[in-house]
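Task: fold both queries, return tokens.
Query 1:
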Amino acid sequence: IFRTFKLIVLKIDYCMEKLSPFELNGRTVYTDIVKFLQCRIGLILNKMTIRNFAQSHYLCLKNMNLFEFMDRFPDEDACVKHFMEVRNKLGVKCKRCGHSDHYWKRDRESYQCKNCGKRITLRSGTALQNSNLSYMLWFKAMHLLTTTKKTFSALEVQRQLNHKSYEAIWKMLHKIREAMGRRDSRYKLSEFIELDDGFFETVNLESKEENRKRGRGSQKQSKVLVLIESTPFQPEEKEGKYKHKPDRKVGHVKMIVMENLQSKNINEKTKKTVKGDASAVSDAYRGYNKLEEILKSHKVINTSEIKEAHTVLPWVHSAIGNAKKVLQGLHHSIGKDYLQNYLNEFCYKYNRRYFDDKLFDRLVIACIELE
């Protein structure tokens, strides 16, 4: 696309040199039209960032399908070879002395430190550590999770992989989701942030016999703090395909399971996930009253006085609704202790929704590079 625009500009310059403009009411019409086109194309080239380019051509991209996956990883050896190549690129660090110079021992199928001689297995320090499942099963599970916008239940993955142990597959999927969460924890949200709390239905065996409450204190509802980047559109950006969309452009999202929604805990989690120079907008819940202490600014909107509250905080409400649909539609019951892992998967794929066929390779890296 960029090359095409540049060729058009060069072609226009060539036409201006070779062809003579005509006059209408004393004005050189052809020259005016050409200069107008050059100006508009120049603006497009200047404003089109890599991110907008990916968003514009999202429908033209495709994920790695099943046939491509089988061609790339036909057997266990191909999976081991790819896993080793990725780990060698990332580097192997000795747990004893901290050195990164190793050589591969074929007879032991492990790395050996050149400094102290300590051996490290290929799986050591990765999400695959202490797992007896084959590399092929791990790769197939990662492929299944990255080929859909939603997710798969552990029982469905067990059927697809034709494995006899449900517990082993369930544990593998949660290790992958934990790796997704660790990867997202490296990055902080910036600029403009929408902030709200969501309540997700979970199962808590400890409070099953207690008298059930309703609302914020209900034992069936787990509290989740949701933060999402929401940058206001510039007037010229609102035209075209964004004309009927909200006045804000969505970025990355983070969801954090909370024990309570007191201002102290909210500030603590927000400080870890949001840069200090960011600005936040939220509803009038009292737990957000002290956000100005850690952020550049905080705007409070009383949504109870507005009929259409989703127009004020459009993207955070959309993210909460989408997450609930994904979890309730595929997982009939979620344990309170494991809700964060499921939210990690949703946020990981939401934040990388334009990665397309690179998402699988990025997940392999996330499973290797845990620290």
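Query 1 returned. Query 2:
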Amino acid sequence: MPRVALEELQPGYHLAGNVYNQNGAVLLTAGMRLRESYIRRLRDLGVRAVDVQPARFRDVRPRDILTPELRTRAALAMAQVLSGIQKGNVDIAPIHPFVAQIVRRVEDNHHVLLGLTDIRAHDAYTHAHSVNVCMLSTLIGRAMGFSRTDLTALATAAILHDLGRVFLDRKVLDKQGPLTPEEFEQVKQHTQLGYDLLASHPRLDTRVPPVLLHHHERSDGSGYPGGLTGNQTTLFARIVAVADLYDAVSSDRPYRPAMAPVECIMMLRTFERGRLWDRGAEALADQVAPYPEACTVRLATGELAIVRHCYKAAPWKPQVTVFTDMDGEPLARPWELSLLKHPEFEVADIVDMEAMPEALRLEAGPGTLSGPPPGDGF
């Protein structure tokens, strides 16, 4: 499942994952064969890259903790909350049923490792980010043994963590590049603005508002707004800080591509050690698949393979289908390989589209593959 930049995308490629719009609705579904008109529309929507795969492996779909429907409905609920705030009505009730569903999905699918992040249109970032941070924070809380009550409070805080951004200048939030120091100072205000909005909310767990204020603090004092260290912030705030940063770096942004899963694991366990809360960072790193399901990898012996299944007990040893020989030539008969049962085989790296044989890059059947037509916006 190589991730291909829009400028390198060609008609005939098959989508490996869904593409979502600003309201969390599915624009294009996994398995669809891309047309030139779809590629142009993706470019117009600010999509930087998409995940693709050869047609012969279109049955290989990455498992996700959240269903596309739940992602869509939760994002729409967040949009409703933000719209209400802009009109002077602070009502967070619309998100409560979806927070409960996210908590249940995490509890029921704790064996599923995290794969690549979903592909979002440029203006879809805020809503989808809130939903992802909710899920990621709940994963960390579950790994730490939180009760259902505590998970629900944590998930509520996580989905609302960026609420203060609703008061910021859209031109700054939508900027297609790094912020100036003045713009960054403006963005930093969202923590205080969000806290002030919910601090006196009568029907909200008291552990929620401090998360909006402190989710950008860092254990070494390098964060904002207060430069607090260690345990000066709440447990919920420290967890959401980990989830917030993970989703940010694992998502495509206008000014930089997403980090690969292996890089995200390295970030959590090495580069951010001492800045993020170490126990939370380690708990999340344990939930990430270094080689996600449906991604294409190169074995140390040179063959290319697609990952079919990841094992939480042995995340570095997935089940794969080998589809080229050691020289990169396509095999007439791909073969199954369990790296768990055959430790002599190892994954060298995740490959991009340039490493794929030409015959597999544009391998496609006639017409559009099964699945619904493009969603609204196409």
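Both queries returned. Flag for query 2: The longest helix spans residues 68-86.
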